[in-house]
Amino acid sequence: MDFRTRTLRLSRRAACLAGAAFAAGLMLPLVAQADDYPSRPIKLVVPGTAGGGMDVIARVIGDKISASLKQPVVVENKAGAGGNIAVDYVAKAAPDGYTIVIGQTAHFSINPSLYAKLPFDTIKDFIPVVMLAESPNVMVVGAQSPYKTLADVVKAAKESPDGLALATPGNGTVSHLTGELFQKAAGIKFTHIPYKGAAPALTDVMGGRVPVMLSSVPTALSQIKAGKLRPVAVSAVKRSPALPDVPTIGEQGYPGFDAGTWYGLLVPAGTPPDVVKKLNAAANEAIKLPEVREKILAEGGDVVGGTSDQFATMLKADYDKWSKVVKESGAKID
User: Residue 83 is inside which H or E element, if any?
Assistant: First the structure.
């Protein structure tokens, strides 16, 4: 072997070792990031205004996660475009666990089919961390309504040549699409009356101007407790802890009927698995606390919890279900 050949081989070996060392160096910050996480404040983004039901849940959960992880959790409200502004913001955030979104059914399972084009993919661009809670819709009528049960509502719808008027907070909402699911299950027709928000819809139902409404439990709960609305059914497979005396749609002749809203934490795709595990553990620990469970119950929710994988499986199934309903309903927002 001549000197030149030997030198060339040594140079190649040195280059390989240097490359390996460089790659290892690049990996060190990622490992350290997961091991040291969190080392600074965490941002929890809420796709809505301050004071709403989701905001209330975010703040109580954020406080407990902060105590568990020994870092501040700062809630940031980003309302607009049906939650799409907030979701897009988090989708484009660094995948380091320092930007989280509290999302729900409408944002992640319905909007992708409802809106003509979104700048993000709710399945590919996010990692589900934990499903915090779920809340069914509730079918309500005015306190003076002749309808006492779900059977009364179905009978009235069948007897109405143009279909029974059904109020919802808006086109493409969970309430609207729950109505679409139910009219198919019951073989009836509703005339959908979409309002710009729940408040005016509730006012018209309480005043007898519209006979029936589908609403989230948190939205209608105070008026139900005040005796201004009569609940006739909830849309989940089991009764709502917030309305234990109200039978489910399934109990009243439509077994297996299940529609409602879930709330959960998600992070950008690419977030390190160890970071996701830490967030999942902290959130599960938080929702086991009596004060947190009571707050979620007061907002009409039922605590869930579980693993990241369980949430991911549920999200995909929920996405597929609502995509089909949106398509069949013809609902669209440009």
Answer: none
In single-letter form, the type of residue at position 138 comes to: V
DSSP code at position 107: I
Structure tokens at 262: 């879930």
pTM: 0.85
Q: Tabulate helix, strand, coil % of the chain (nearest 5).
A: 50, 20, 30
- What residue type is assigned to position 234 of the chain? V
- Distance (Å, rounded) from C-alpha 32 to C-alpha 145? 63
Say how many C-beta atoms besides its own lie within 10 A of residue 32's C-beta.
Answer: 11
Residue 323, both tokens: 């995509």
Cα–Cα dist 229/216, whole Å: 13
The residue type at 109: S
Cβ burial of 206 (10 Å; 0-12, 13-18, 19+) is buried
Domains of the chain by start residue, with CATH: 36-135+260-329 (3.40.190.150), 136-252 (3.40.190.10)
Sequential pLDDT tens for the chain (334 residues): 554 444 444 455 544 544 544 544 554 444 445 679 999 999 999 999 998 888 989 999 999 999 999 999 999 999 999 999 999 999 999 999 999 999 999 999 999 999 989 999 999 999 999 999 999 999 999 999 999 999 999 999 999 988 999 999 999 999 999 999 999 999 999 999 999 999 999 999 999 999 999 999 988 999 999 999 999 999 999 999 999 999 999 999 999 999 999 999 999 999 999 999 999 999 999 999 999 999 998 888 899 999 999 999 999 999 999 999 999 999 998 7
User: β-pairing, 126-142 with 99-104?
Assistant: unpaired
